[in-house]
Amino acid sequence: MGAYIYLVYHLEKFNLLKGLENEEDKVKLSVLAFLFSNTILLHHSPSIAKPSERILRSQFLESRKCLERYLEIYHCFPRVDISEAYFQHLNDVFHGFEQAAGDFALFALLRLNFSLLTAADYLATGQYSYDLKLEDEKDWGILTEEQRRRVIEAAENEKDYNKEAYYLFRKGNYSFQSPLTPSEDNLNLLRKEMAVKVLQQLEEHKDKRLFYLEAPTGGGKTNLSMLAVAELLRANPELNKVFYVFPFTTLITQTHKSIKEALKLDDEEIALLHNKVGFQTKSGNEMNNLEEAREDGLYGNRRRDFLQNLFALYPFILVTHVRFFDMLKSNGKEEAYLMHRLANSVVVLDELQSYNPRHWDKMMYMLDQYGKYFNIRFILMSATLPRLDKIKAVRDTVKDMPIAQDLLPDARQYFTNPNFKGRVRFNFELMKDKRETTLIKFLFYQELFLKAGDKKLSLS
User: pLDDT digits over 435-450, tens only?
Assistant: First the structure.
């Protein structure tokens, strides 16, 4: 009934709308209404896929005659007969939209519509049934001005080496020394100079949405990413939440503590979202007493914890790669819940080399499109990933490959610097035996091919 009333209202409105004499524009608006009505039909469904099939092959069309009588309750509604042929016409136009150049915008709009409607429905039910109110920015997981200021100040002042890096950056015209003699002091100086270069690049390219941070192991990528996050929050007041994305839950656990301490965050401001942790509790959410828990089948105020974790209502979120990309592309209902939360955010994706190389071009395209339509800043990090957008063979194959702005434009100088290069020593004693050499080579090349998705090599 809700989908039917929504459609009748908007289709009639389009017919009466002044300035829409163009029949093609009316049809396009009608198609959007047709697709948005699918969100209403599916808001209790586990999947959001195939909107045209859901409408054209479901009981919705069969029930429309019966639904017409409900329009009499709403006196402003006309009695409009929406025929099956009309639905089929809209469906044909929709498939024309799908094949158009701008279909990603339509895809993202429909997912956003579904995410917002289902999230609002879920939260409204919680407020009505259990009096779970989300009353201020903190409840909604949005950075307040006080939190933003605190994060920016902590990134600059909490660590002495960052404080010195900001001093050199603001001083201007810093002459990079790039010392080559291995020593602890020179290693720390290189890290400091990397921070200065990142700050310079962000000041010059703060309008970009896609950044790339390549740094050697031991160079402090996480610290550099926190400086980048702080500077993007400083330069773009509309950005109001931060996502850190990792391939493994162990990395999430390890990085959680360093981010929390470095940016002076408390447990109400940063959360870990993965299957191996329980619901995080904000202050004020504790159960009032045991009697309430016994009487309430859903554990009293623990409902609030459930909602806040389900919708990631924290300004800093640590999440796995799988769950993050499910937010962007999955048709599952629970995955789509969080999609709207990505708008106006900074997203740091670490360890990009863990992705299959066959999907890098698709990943870059998706991040570029979401960044443009949802005002997201992406920071892509890796110590070993080659720059896909700069490989000629890839650029010749993939049309309009997005280009990420380097935060360390000449990162190779750090990889080859003895202070980083000489930190690891290899022992090749086992390679003196020819058989062992062959086995090592086999394992090495097999790993490369497996990562590329090829079949296993034979020992021959």
Answer: 555 666 666 665 655 5
